[in-house]
Amino acid sequence: MSKISVKGLRKSFGSNEVLKGLDVEITEGEVVCVIGPSGSGKSTFLRCLNKLDELSAGTVIVDGFNLSDKTVDLNEVRQHIGMVFQHFNLFPHMTVLQNIMLAPVELKKQSTADARATALKLLDRVGLADKASARPAQLSGGQKQRVAIARSLAVNPDIMLFDEATSALDPEMVGEVLQVIRDLAAEGMTMVVVTHEMGFAREVADRVIFMADGVIVEEGTPAELFGNPQQERTQDFLSKVL
Amino acid sequence: MRKLNIFRAGKLAVAVTALLALAGGFVGVSAAAASQPQSAVTGETYVIGTDTTFAPFEYRENGELTGIDMDLIRDIAANQGFTVEIKSLGFDAALQALQSNQVDGVIAGMSITDERKLVFDFSEPYFDSGVQMAVAEDNTEIIGYSDLAGETVVAKRGSEGETFANSIKDEYDFTVKALADSATMYDDVKAGNSVAVFDDYPVLAYGINQNNGLKSVTEKEQGSSYGFAVNKGQNPELLAAFNAGLAELKDSGEYQAILDTYLEQPAPAAASGFFGLLGDSLPALMKGLGLTLLATGLSILIALVLGVLFGFFKVSESRVLRGLASGYVSIFRGTPLLVQAFFFYFGLPQLTGQSIDVLTAGVLTLSLNAGAYMTEIVRGGIQSVDPGQTEAGRSLGLGYVTTMRRVVLPQAVKIMTPSFINQFVMTLKDTSLLAVIGFAELTYQGQQIYASNFRTGETLLIVAALYFIVINLLTMLSNKLDKRFNK
């Protein structure tokens, strides 16, 4: 069953066209990693999936919601799609627990007490049960990103988007974050992961998409794409990063 | 004479006076007086309006209204067996109150003019004024107009003194400089910036009496006469009693004694020391300080509302709202506060025909002005919060308003607080500019005090010290609150 359906997606910033017509189908439970050089449009593609960036042309249907339809309640759609950012974007004026509880309580999905219980459970799941009352400033980068993942999971999304979630981390902290994403994959979460971690993509992805200059150059299973890339640009890119 | 040109037969006088009555908390009492038999003023109480400060005719000494006008009306009342209740309203307001029968009479160093005779009935003249020239006490070179060749003299802007000086300046070849008030003019002469001053004879005589460091060197020029006024056709018995009492005081020599008290009598023994001045002036200054704080508080509150409103307009996606906010900010940041104050107090009533009281005009000016700066503070605060914060909030499914309220604003407020405190202090200091429109705040009170005692330097030191203390106390308090709530 198709969870995300993208057809002819184009996105321009002023006169600069960043996405030049993308077609992607992602089925339920699939883990798709998007790789490619900087400026290839990977992050913009991801941000179009929950409409943090407006679409210039084409259609995006996520979890049955057509994002081009003006009557669709974006806030409702976004509760189905969690997003994790490169720079964590934790709310610095709140404790870890308040960060996680904010959305469920504000959206009236849970009572404060239930939200607290859920938040503590999620913190336990990402290995940070003891940091509930800490402020983001007191955490390491890896810990912050794990809290950010817990925060996204608190609204119980069907889909998770990761936008270079480990790029801003010191090398020794990358592993702990990838482990959390790996666990989510194992639980059957539908995920789109923009990443520079080729080893991780090879290990976890069901499918890898290689983007360059706003188009999808090549896609396939990790074995196909990493083992036997067909396109010259793919080969060129992989030869530099592997 | 300063009061020749300010008369306005406004149709709105009634409304204005009602407003003033509310503000001043007094109630008109003229109805009872009008119903009495005309001959009987005995036992009656009349409400008399006057100016705030026009030394030596009316001014406050130790908080009490005193001066030639005050002594005269009180003595005439005693002589004729009626009592007076004095309302110190300000010159224009007193005339408006008289027109709407909120007061029964006005005595305020008012010149008798044909224009005023159309709406008021005047008593016999009780004082003949005129312009006189004075120089510094130690100046022995200037003893007449002919010694002024090539020199600069000073006169009060818009006064009869200025008119007179200008009328003879070509003949005697001197330059006339205009200043706003008597105390400043006298300081200018003492400092040697001007060699002589042309001022109203009684004002000048009073200043010399108060050891202002000047001496008069010419006879007074023929000028206008002052009269006591009642509303046209109203209170004729009061007018008659005033004339009768005035005649009796003149006969008994009491009238001359009053004039001598203020104009001729040698100066009182050495002026009181600095602490005497402090003690004498503090009650009036504290009243001014109260108004300063009131105007600041009201203005900052309104400015905060305006700042938040237009600040949000500035960061909104609507081009119209952004344009509106930008227009507002550029108008009020792009013009001087002083011009804005003049506009709201003097200009706006002329354009709309709607009078405005000085507190309203002052608060309007300050709040609109501070609001423009607040708008920029709010905009800057919101925009300095990392956009990733908004994206994180929105990606969780939170709406724009919720994201603003729970995520962006708490961080923005923390960033804005020091700027808010700064603006608060600026606005408090800016209230002093409202002295020019006659708002009786701290600086105005200080000016009133040295206008009658001529101790400019000491009085301003006290005023500055009061600002300094209050501003620093409030800053300390604000910073404490900031630390406490914005950890």
Automatic annotation (TrEMBL), chain A:
> So what does this thing catalyse?
a polar amino acid(out) + ATP + H2O = a polar amino acid(in) + ADP + phosphate + H(+)
- Specify whether Nucleotide-binding is a keyword of the entry: yes
UniProt keywords, alphabetically = ATP-binding, Nucleotide-binding, Transport
InterPro entries membership: AAA+_ATPase, ABC_ATPase_HisP-typ, ABC_transporter-like_ATP-bd, ABC_transporter-like_CS, MetN_ABC_transporter-like, P-loop_NTPase
Looking at the Swiss-Prot or TrEMBL record, what is one Pfam family this protein matches? ABC_tran
What is this enzyme's EC? 7.4.2.1
Which Gene3D superfamilies does this UniProt record tie to the protein? Answer: P-loop containing nucleotide triphosphate hydrolases
Which SMART domains does this entry report, sorted A to Z?
A: AAA
Positions of the ABC transporter domain: 4-238
Q: Which GO terms describe its molecular function?
A: ATP binding; ATP hydrolysis activity; ATPase-coupled polar amino acid-transporter activity
- This protein's name: ABC-type polar-amino-acid transporter
User: Which species is the source of this protein?
Assistant: Cryobacterium glaciale
TrEMBL record, chain B:
What is an annotated GO biological process for this record, any one? amino acid transport
Gene Ontology CC annotations of this record? ATP-binding cassette (ABC) transporter complex
UniProt keyword Cell inner membrane present: no
The membrane topology of this protein is: Multi-pass membrane protein
- Is the Transmembrane keyword given for this protein? yes
Question: What Gene3D superfamilies has UniProt attached to this entry?
Answer: MetI-like, Periplasmic binding protein-like II
Pfam families for this protein = BPD_transp_1, SBP_bac_3
Family as reported in the entry's similarity comment: Belongs to the binding-protein-dependent transport system permease family.
What's the protein called, per UniProt? Transporter substrate-binding domain-containing protein
Q: In which organism is this protein found? A: Cryobacterium glaciale
